[in-house]
């Protein structure tokens, strides 16, 4: 078993909000809401440790969204009051639409204060056996969500200045959160997985982006954000193709981005979505260099049906044809509740899946 993250049995981060917490979000504010969140987080940390996970998150219980709660706290970025974007998600029954407010870069981007600092400190003080893990959206998500039209040209007449400020703000976030004792940080990034989908690249091209090379830009900016990461901090990235109410937004194997992604992105590990045929095969893992870890997201968070250990072991064996078994770990393919609404399964089904991951990892790796 691994003694440093990512662990043989790990998970992406978000967890289903308990009904009591959902009710509290509707009726409480301020200190009363925070107390309700504190109570729910203590309990979900206890459940993660009880299952045998070596890392624990706060389930993202204080957030409405996995990414926008962070992005809107960056100085210079705000919601567009008169405009929404439409993201179309798919599932077996059809399509659903997510229509969040558009974002606007209205001033120079900066980190006014470390984001989620109090949240991480509470998690840090709540764990007993597990390593506390903080999840934040990668800098790519600021650009992917809005594109060139979201950036005020009066603020950034030169787009290179936008990228420098964005990565600089993230670098300061990494440094400040490290000073609080964070040793396990995850950059969540759907964009690098979306770009494997020709339809997504066509959408970016239509708004004026260089879609064919966008992944290279994103890799460059993430690396700039990580250039001065604190000693002893493990940083991973999670890449999936969308997760909203058990639905997805994109399809396609990792082939399009794999060589540059695995060869150039300076993270310690990759959480990859591999729960169904939308993700393609394991062949792209041949580009992962020695010293990097891949966490196979073989267990779906989009439905409650429990996978079989034999199937999981068989798929781990298939992946090990392209990368050394010792470089592999196991997790769900995404969070269970990327937004406050959550996916369509029960809390007990969620914890059964996490327990299955722990048990399978113990049987595969010892």
Helix run count = 12
Judged by helices, strands and strand pairing, the structural class is alpha/beta
Q: Kindly report how far apart the N and C termini lie.
A: 6 Å
- Average pLDDT confidence is 95
Ranges where pLDDT stays below 50 over 5 or more residues in a row are none
Envelope shape: globular
Please describe what this structure looks like:
This protein has helices at residues 19-27, 30-51, 68-71, 117-126, 140-146, 159-179, 191-194, 198-206, 214-226, 255-264, 309-319, 347-365, and strands at 55-56, 75-84, 87-91, 94-98, 101-110, 131-132, 134-137, 184-188, 234-239, 269-273, 293-299, 328-332. It is 38% helix and 18% strand. The chain contains twelve helices and twelve strands. The chain is globular, with a radius of gyration of 19 Å. The mean pLDDT is 95. Strands 7-8-9-10-11-12 form a six-stranded parallel β-sheet.
Give a summary of the structure in a few sentences.
With 366 residues, this protein is an alpha/beta fold. It has helices spanning 19-27, 30-51, 68-71, 117-126, 140-146, 159-179, 191-194, 198-206, 214-226, 255-264, 309-319, 347-365; strands at residues 55-56, 75-84, 87-91, 94-98, 101-110, 131-132, 134-137, 184-188, 234-239, 269-273, 293-299, 328-332.
Which secondary structure elements does this structure contain, and how are they paired or packed?
Layout: H1 19-27, H2 30-51, E1 55-56, H3 68-71, E2 75-84, E3 87-91, E4 94-98, E5 101-110, H4 117-126, E6 131-132, E7 134-137, H5 140-146, H6 159-179, E8 184-188, H7 191-194, H8 198-206, H9 214-226, E9 234-239, H10 255-264, E10 269-273, E11 293-299, H11 309-319, E12 328-332, H12 347-365
Helix pairs in contact: 1-2, 6-9, 9-10
